[in-house]
Amino acid sequence: MKKQVQNYFLSILFLLLSTLSVSAQLQEIDTTLTTNSLKVGIAGSQPFVFNNEDQDGIALEIWDRIANKQEWDYELKSFSSIETGLQQLNSNQIDMLIGPVSITSKRVKGYKFTQPFYQSSLGIASRKDENGLWQRIKPFFSIELLLAVSGFLLILAVVGTLLWLAERHESPDQFPKDPVKGIGNGMWLAIVTMSTTGYGDMAPITLKGRVIAGIWMVITLIFAGSMIAGIASTLTLSGLGTSTIDKIEEISGKNTATITGSPAIAFIKEHKAKVTQVSSLPEAMQLLKDKKVDAVVYDRPQLLYYQVNHPEEEIYVAKAEYYKQGYGFAFPEYTNRLSTINLKLLELAEEQEIQEIVDRYLGKDD
């Protein structure tokens, strides 16, 4: 009995000591939020972070507003890449990493992330210049149109041959026995019948010929209108169109630039476009400006930021977005800061402060 009582008191003492230890650890963690010991790593590219004192960047401005609201002091440490920053975070050299840090399934296994403060994606940039003469007539030299014309001529040849076979004996003056002349006259009759021109210079006189001509009239009444409308539509669009690209399907067969190492490379190849890899976005945009490529596919926020800062280049960024990924702040796997920062991110979003920051750097995406 005495031993049981002794074990009971030892258990209580152990629980008290454990509680005190946990409280001391929490107090120590909370203290880091109110002292200047909070080490914040920054990494990534413009416009999310800048390595100068003139501008902060989207990610840094959002973090600074959260820190000011909480009255937290912090010191910044720059890294050359996101991966380097994550490695420093993993080795506890910094307390958090901010920038355009993509929230991926692989990274979530080793780090904690806030909710996304920005939804990034791949985008398409193209020129706004008007189509030249070649661009306007180019659709009429396409494989599709050539195949359509070839098919139409083949149909005319079949109809002309049938008319010649039906009429050559009874109407040799209209359909000579010479196959070349006879079939040629039959094709001419098929054309004037289809166009409803009806010069009256030729007409079938046999029952077979009239049946063939009648069937051809019905067919042309059904299909000729849509074919002519398609040609007229092509003429109108090629005459009024510009070189802008609105969706990824339009880059098929075209020269497209992107940055070496970007996931856009596989995306471009998937849509059967020719890939030109360069080392930087300004280099890719120069190729676009010089008309050496038809489009640039890259991270949409970077394209928008370039467009805002180079209005004289008449760059068009399509509204279509592909491969969406959220950007968030990264923390070690064991942290108690997420709930506080997520709450502040929600407040900033509800108060339109995040949107105001994004619009200032990227322009309003109307």
UniProtKB/TrEMBL annotation:
SMART domains, alphabetized: PBPb (SM00062), PBPe (SM00079)
Signal sequence, renumbered to the chain: 1-24
Pfam families in the record: Lig_chan, SBP_bac_3
Span of domain Solute-binding protein family 3/N-terminal: 37-365
Membrane topology, record value: Multi-pass membrane protein
Annotated TM spans: 145-166, 187-207, 213-237
Protein name: Transporter substrate-binding domain-containing protein
Organism encoding this protein: Mesonia sediminis
